[in-house]
Amino acid sequence: MNAPTAFPDQQKPVPPYKHTPLFPLGADTTPYKKITAEGVRVEKVLGRDMLVVSREALRALSEAAFGEINHYLRPGHLKQLRAILDDKEASDNDKFVAFDFLKNANIAAGGVLPMCQDTGTA
Predict the structure, then answer these.
(1) Above 90 in pLDDT, residue 114?
(2) Which of these, 20, 44, 56, 61, has the minimum number of CB atoms within 10 Å of its CB?
(3) Does 81 lie in the same domain as 105?
(4) In the chain, how many domains are there?
């Protein structure tokens, strides 16, 4: 259940529940990097432009994507985690979880162990 509840031994009141949309719509500020343009071309098919991507280009893209997913968080995600640590209203548990995520991100960025070191999920 996502609604906050009060615990008898808790000294400060629980803040009211605030809904955050799972996938908010807005401008895409994600930084992208170009893997390669080799093996990608545009051809005319029945009078329309068709993107043709070679098997090798798809392999290179997939390899790069899995490496990024396994070892790096986006800069925006890292900033959000850092903001939790700076938030005066964040609970000790919130800060513990954010700090652990940042520690895992630091370890994963070494390229040996993946981001899912302790959970097994990406």
Answers:
(1) no
(2) 20
(3) yes
(4) 2
